Amino acid sequence: MTTLQSDFQTEVLQSDLPVLVDFSAEWCGPCRMIAPAVDQLATELAGKAKVVTVDIDEHSEVAGRYGIMSIPALVVFKGGQEVDRIVGAAPKAQIEQMVRRHLS
Fold first, then answer.
1. Residue 40: which residues within 8 A CB-CB, separation 6 or more?
2. Catalytic residue among 28, 34, 38, 98
3. Residue 36: phi, psi to the nearest 5?
4. What is the Cβ-side half-sphere exposure of residue 39, based on CA atoms within 13 angstroms?
5. For 88-103, how does the pLDDT look when each residue is reduced to its tens digit (9 = 90+)?
6. Would residue 31 show up in a list of annotated catalytic residues for this protein?
7. Reading across the β-sheet that carries 2-3, which strands appear in turn?
8. Which of 31, 47, 76, 77 sits a CA distance of 20 to 30 A from 87?
9. Tens digit of pLDDT for each residue in 16-64?
10. Does pTM surpass 0.85?
């Protein structure tokens, strides 16, 4: 899993692969609860999809742009567009199913 360091445009919107973006924050208990599952998916889907974590406190403009009101919010981007979203702590199987729907 990659933590967004630089540019959302480059990391996510211009990615050739579908990207699962985990909008979260250090202080968010449910975010910490699903983090191991998101990490596992990053490993399991390597080469098929990217997984990027966006800390909403550090990147509030990105969170605002995509209407992130509650976290964790897991958003799939493909071809620079949002194509799917889960808000709240979800089981790994549900997150994986959402991402796999968008693998080409």
1. 92
2. 28
3. -60, -40
4. 6
5. 999 999 999 999 999 9
6. yes
7. 2-3, 50-55, 19-24, 73-78, 81-87
8. 47
9. 999 999 999 999 999 999 999 999 999 999 999 999 999 999 999 999 9
10. yes
